[in-house]
Amino acid sequence: MPKEIKVLVCGAAGKMGKSVVKAVTAETGFKLVSAVDRRENPDIGKDIGIISGIDKVNVKLSGDLKEAISKTSPDVMVDFTMPEIVFTNTEISLKSGVRAVVGTTGMSKEDINELAKIAKQNGIGAVVAPNFAIGAVLMMRFAKDASKYFDNAEIIEFHGHKKLDAPSGTAIKTAELMTEARKEFGKDTIKGKETFPGARGSKGPGNLHIHSVRLPSLVAHQEVILAGLGQTLTIRHDSFDRTSFMPGVLMAIKKVMQIDHLIYGLENII
What we know:
- It is a single chain.
- The chain is α/β, with parallel strands linked by helices and about 270 residues long.
- The chain has two domains: about 5-130 and about 245-270, Rossmann fold; about 135-240, Dihydrodipicolinate Reductase, domain 2 (2-Layer Sandwich).
- About 35% of the residues lie in helices and about 25% in strands.
- The chain is built from eight helices and twelve strands.
- The chain has helices at about 15-25, 50, 65-70, 85-95, 110-120, 135-145, 170-180, 245-255; strands at about 5-10, 30-35, 60, 75-80, 100, 125-130, 150-160, 200-205, 210-215, 220-230, 230-240, 260-265.
């Protein structure tokens, strides 16, 4: 591993991107070499440190990922962008020989499988995770363990009103992990009439009902409610600030330097 890991942040002018910029510039052994955002961003050409609310870091915001990679030769790209562009960004990164740490949600299983093939073909590492908060990863792990003992469960996830995809990647990943422990939930639940379509939420893997709440001021929150005879168990995680994701992001950057394949889910590296 090099003395300094050179990092490119994609989506650098967004809320998560700014947090990554701050975390990378403050961490020993990391060097921010490039920052990329959408071409139409009026701050293109400005110092990303100033944009992020810290001192100048002598890295100007770029609107072209390929050009930024060519000019700065990063070791790792960190992507917190949007569902419609994350696959393309990650494909560009991996095919350019740049490892990828991806926190943008909204990709399909097929997308992730395709990126895994590209990573393998290029012998380069990637970490894709729906949630980088250590507490959220533990919440998912505990929900999976509890699913062995409770045959009814529902998931409620809460995010800010500008989040584009629903349900969240964390909710989907939680449901997938829970169904590894129990194939089907709620077998005895009566199918009632929904006066308003969607009132019971969407049905995810294993017949798990998933409810998505979108409100201003929320960051990232999730409850898993499990029920059995005469009892319920609620497992909840709350991220009140985006700094909660940064230890996991930094951990993933270090890990991705050591692997030559794609890892899906932070639970696989902690």
